[in-house]
Amino acid sequence: MPPANSETPAVELEEIEKELWRQKLKWEQDLDDQREHRLLREGLFYHDDSLNGLSDDDRMWEIIRMSFLQVADVLDSVGLAHYFEYFLQRGILGAKHMRLLTLKYVETKMPRIRDPIERAAIVDAAAECMQNEDMRFFEARYGDIDRLILDCQHARRFLSEKTIHEKWLLDQYDLTSPLHDDTNSFKTKWHVPQKDKDSFYEYDDWVAATGCDGFLFLWPIPESAASIEDAQAATKCSADSRHRVPPVIRCRKLHAAPCIDFAVDWKAMRAITCGLDNKISVYNFSEDNHDEIREKSTEQGFLCIDAKLEDGKAAAGTNFGHIKVLDVENKKFLMSLPGHQDHCKDLRSQKLIHKLVGHNANCSAIDVDFQKRRAASTANEYRFILWEWDLRNFRQLAVCESRGHNANCLVADWAKGRLATGSDDGLVRIWNLNEPKWEPMWEKSIDCMHEMTVAIDADWESNRLVTASWDYNVDMWDLETGDLLHHFVKPRRCMTQAWSPEDGQLHAEAIKSHLGKVKTLLTMGKEVHEVALQQAREAASRLKDTQSKWTASSDAKHKVQSVVDQSQTVKDYAAAGSSQSQLLFVLIVVCVSVLGAMFFNRMRYYEKKHFI
């Protein structure tokens, strides 16, 4: 809605006017859906040397100016570049805003444009501007212009000066308001192109993850992988894009609340998930359908689950401390086992043999080898403990301090004596357990560029590591080189679990190994902003539109240059004001010092005169 003191009325579109706007954008329906999603994913690695060497603020300001130039190009294509500054004044700052223009908006909110022919020409040009791929994928490659303006100091200073002196942006209006149904972001967030869905049988190696939106995601792992250096070197080449950023093959909402834990039968390609909505879902990846199992209690939530799906049995822990055993095939709960006084975190056996006492904080993750009767556990105390037990007793093999590295999750290769831990610092540390001395040594660290690594899984035979994070990243790394092999794109909220199969299948030995693993639980309710990730990962680039129909004329360039000159003037004024303030502060300090010295000497004079 417009501001209360708006000089123009709100824009209310009739259905026929919305349909007219849709018809102008009908060309979008002819685009290759799969290719569009691929280019959006590739935007994460888009790079242009023209922005190299710039500071973060200068880089953002350069991108903002590039977005301004898009408006000038669209207007100049119909010979109306003299309206360029007027469009910026109305808050239309880039091609993404131009695409939303309707004739009703121009007539209502832009009274300076009085000629009906000019209005129609502007709306037609705005509807076609996104046919230029540089404009269509600008946000994927550079970031959201609206967010960049808020984050860029130069932009805030420039727009503040314009708002104060020329009344820019005072009567802004949300362009998406009358087109709410048509501008829904569901398509870009959760939509999977049909061609990507149909490619399910082309792969046999997978990564799966769950997130706080209640979705389960499945990505393929291509046969060959490109490192992040190769990806950056081949920015504009799409031949290996599926290796850098593989497509999501399955994206299914299974829970109305955060999906906390899941287990996968990679041989049958089925998964079982649990969430805080008192529901357990059994999902078939190949058929893309799922069944639900619920209990009567509406206040109960499931916090962890483990299953042997080939036998149709599963067990889940609840927030009331009970362990629920269920028959997956018949969709029935068989029994409820009490025993935990607090929230049940994980279940691996029904019989209590030992209590392994050693941590002084809540145990957050554990990896168990039931064949060798060994375990590794970590807690919120900057250390992990190695255990060994038999039927009569247990002992601590080693206590490893990890200063500055508070592990949230861990995964062990008991056959080769190696351990990987993920922490709040975004690092994954690889440890050599030094069997039989059991003196863990820190081998190396992999910087996963996460804000918080919360889930981890490893295929030790193939030297691959999968991490999931609080900033909704799912990445695959090379354990030997530390290179980023794949970046899996789709989630929009923090991740809870990540699973990667060994050799593309689930073997009997792997089942036993995974049955001994407690996966990480997250504290829910926080959401990291989507744009922060995109801005941290993308490399900005300048549009090269010269000698095309979008090339700006001399008049348009003059307008843009005038805006740049004004911004530079504001910057110079601010610098001069800062220098004057510093000089004035120095003068005040000097004056105060002189007066203090005078008063001090006067006091000494009276002291000597009256008391000496």
From TrEMBL:
Ranges occupied by WD repeats: 402-434, 461-487
Top-level division of the source organism's lineage: Eukaryota
Entry-linked InterPro entries: WD40/YVTN_repeat-like_dom_sf (IPR015943), WD40_repeat_CS (IPR019775), WD40_repeat_dom_sf (IPR036322), WD40_rpt (IPR001680), WDR55/POC1 (IPR050505)
Positions of transmembrane segments: 583-600
Signal peptide as annotated in the record: none
SMART domains, per database record: WD40
Pfam families, per the entry: WD40 (PF00400)
Keyword annotations: Membrane, Repeat, Transmembrane, Transmembrane helix, WD repeat
Protein name: Uncharacterized protein
Organism: Symbiodinium pilosum (Dinoflagellate)
